[in-house]
Amino acid sequence: MDAFYASVEQRDDPALRGRPVAVAWRGARSVVCAASYEARVFGVRSAMPALRAERLCPQLVFVPPDFARYKAVSRQIREIFAQHTDLIEPLSLDEAYLDVTVTKSGLASATATAEAIRTAIHAQTQLTASAGVAPNKFLAKIASDWRKPDGLFVIRPPQVEAFLTPLPVARLPGVGKVMEAKLALLGVTTVGELREHALADLERRFGRWGRRLHELARGIDEHAVQPERPTLQISAEDTFEHDLTIDELEPHIRRLAEKTWAGYLKESQRVARTVVLKLKTADFHTLTRSLTPPQRPQSAGELADIACALRERVERPADSRYRLVGVGLSGFVERDSYRAQSDLFDSAARGSPL
């Protein structure tokens, strides 16, 4: 979807149309959730501090986010996807992979399917979407950004190598600033230059990631669309108006543990074994501490107790201050598997024969 949250706000409030809009709370600690295309002209981007966004664009209109409304629109869009294929892998409220090798609609090509979906989205939601059509997921992702907003871009199999050759290596998934700098030291700035390096050389320098780079440079991605993506972590976090010391975090940790536990209760088939505490320092360093206790947390109170105790493993000066705290649950396993393991260890503890 194109500038999804901001586009929903502009659709629902005609006074916002044509104006630079940031979906964000106003304030020193707020960040931009989404920026309209009118705001992007000024350099405003999502995840940018709200104060910086306002400096870049003094006429910026701030709109508080309404996630319930965005989720409702997202459900509408998913229903359109489901008319064409059951192989849908959501990435977020506004983005998904679809495998349309075989479609319910019987349309002649993936391109025709993408056009039909975009047309239906606009007709039913009055919003625009951009699509990328390609032989695999990573190429489709790049293609989906190629003609935004309201665009469609197709990479056919014979075009893959020529399309990739001039691209900066930063366009490859997983190549961030650190990897980009490492590749630059080898004289590699484009995908074409990366393709010139032998697999053995890349593996020697970067290990298993070297093989992935070798494949991406050739347009190879064997990852299938996964309709059911298992939950990796359930969490809640909060950014404070004023930085706090670690001793002042307990009431916030307990409040966030309640929110995390409420989300966890919706997981009917899987259980979480690991508690995660996330902190962001006043100077924007992110710290995480985790613990997998012998017995998984059984309540929000137990989750909060473990998360609070994890503060003792934060080895920083006592007067350090923190701008954000988060509490999470991870290490998910199937409920039946966990129950079987628990029964096994309980039997062992009672001295029963194994």
Question: Could you please describe the fold and organization of this structure?
Answer:
By secondary structure, the protein is α+β, with helices and mostly antiparallel strands. The chain is 39% helix and 19% strand. The protein is built from 14 helices and 11 strands. The strands form 4 sheets. It has a 4-stranded antiparallel sheet with strand order 8-11-9-10. Strands 2-1-3 form a 3-stranded mixed sheet. Strand 9 and strand 10 form a beta hairpin. Helix 4 crosses helix 5. The chain is globular and about 60 Å long. The protein starts with a helix and ends in a 5-residue tail after the last helix.
Which stretches are poorly predicted, pLDDT < 50 over at least 5 residues? Answer: 343-350
The major beta sheet can be summarized as:
4 strands, antiparallel
| Biggest sheet: strand arrangement | 8-11-9-10
Question: What's the tally of helices?
Answer: 14
Give the beta-strand count: 11
**What structural class is derived from the secondary structure elements?**
alpha+beta
Kindly estimate the percentage of residues that lie in beta strands according to DSSP. Answer: 15-25%
Q: What is the ordering of alpha helices and beta strands?
A: HEEHHEHEEHEHEHHHHHEHEEHEH
The general outline is globular
The termini sit apart by 55 Å
Mean pLDDT: 91
Give Rg in angstroms: 24 Å
Helical content class: 25-40%
